[in-house]
Amino acid sequence: MCLGTPMQVVEMQGSHALCEVNNTQEIVDMMLVGDQPKGTWILNFLGAARETMTAEDAEQTILAHNAVSDVMQGGDQIDHLFADLINREPELPDHLKGLVPTNAELTNKAPINTSPSKDK
Questions:
Q1: Which domains does the chain possess?
Q2: pTM higher than the cut 0.70
Q3: What is the three-state SS of 19-56?
């Protein structure tokens, strides 16, 4: 499994950038995202920046990585690492909302006949 790691651009070096997260630095290929100013957050997959990120998205991703690490080490106190998800209803992306029936549509739907068919 490959997890993307948020990193912050320290300086551009041609088509690559020196990036950093948690005091760890890495040279990252920036061809997919182009030149980025110092301080830009990128999502690094195996040494290549796949996309730029907001600071908030980078923080949430880092917290999710910390939760995975904690669980792998036997920890079970991870709710604080998902503060953005606790006590809220999940939301579908706009392009999927029309594909899911509403509660009213489900309530008014005729029951499904599960008895075996006698037609043979």
A1: 5-72 (2.30.30.140)
A2: no
A3: EEECCEEEEEECCCCCCCCCCCEEEEECCEEEEEECHH
